[in-house]
Design brief:
By secondary structure, the protein is of the alpha+beta class. Helices cover 23% and strands 20% of the residues. It has a three-stranded antiparallel sheet. α1 packs across α2. The relative contact order is 0.23.
Length: 71
């Protein structure tokens, strides 16, 4: 599905390399029981991870650089 105007798709990365795709910060937050703003802070690289996951906006890169962090 295409995201509505003003929404940016988000990808959640697990430290073991799995990817989960969401249409927006709100959808990612609801699906993972976290606040959308917290997801946004990680996606914009203000925070490294959130509850053991890394979030990036679609098109941004994540190369596993935080794989060694503890949850």
């Amino acid at each position: 599905p295409i995201a509505s105007s003003g929404q940016r798709p988000v990808i959640k990365f697990s430290f073991d390399g799995k990817k989960y795709h969401y249409n927006s910060l709100t959808e990612a937050g609801l699906a993972n029981n976290v606040h959308r703003k917290s997801v946004g802070h990680v996606a914009s690289k203000q925070l490294r991870q959130l509850k053991g996951f890394v979030y990036r906006y679609k098109g941004d890169t994540y190369k596993g650089e935080y794989a060694g962090l503890a949850r």
